[in-house]
Amino acid sequence: METPVCTKKGPYVVEGEEGKTYYYCTCGLSKSQPFCDGAHKGTRFQPTAHKAEKSGSIYFCGCRTSKNGALCDGAHKEL
What we know:
Oligomer: single chain
Strand content: 15-25%
């Protein structure tokens, strides 16, 4: 597997908790999107850790093309 799977053409909105670390799925194979469940095993992908700076909405990338790491940057609008 060379490219990640686009699981959603838009962000996953998660209510985050300040100081908590979330492990974002970079491969797109996880059954618990947008979070890693270990489905990347055997691929070149690894989860990305994202620590919430404050409590509130976090917009995780669903298309896997964001230039902003785990966070949505609107790249899905170009798909």
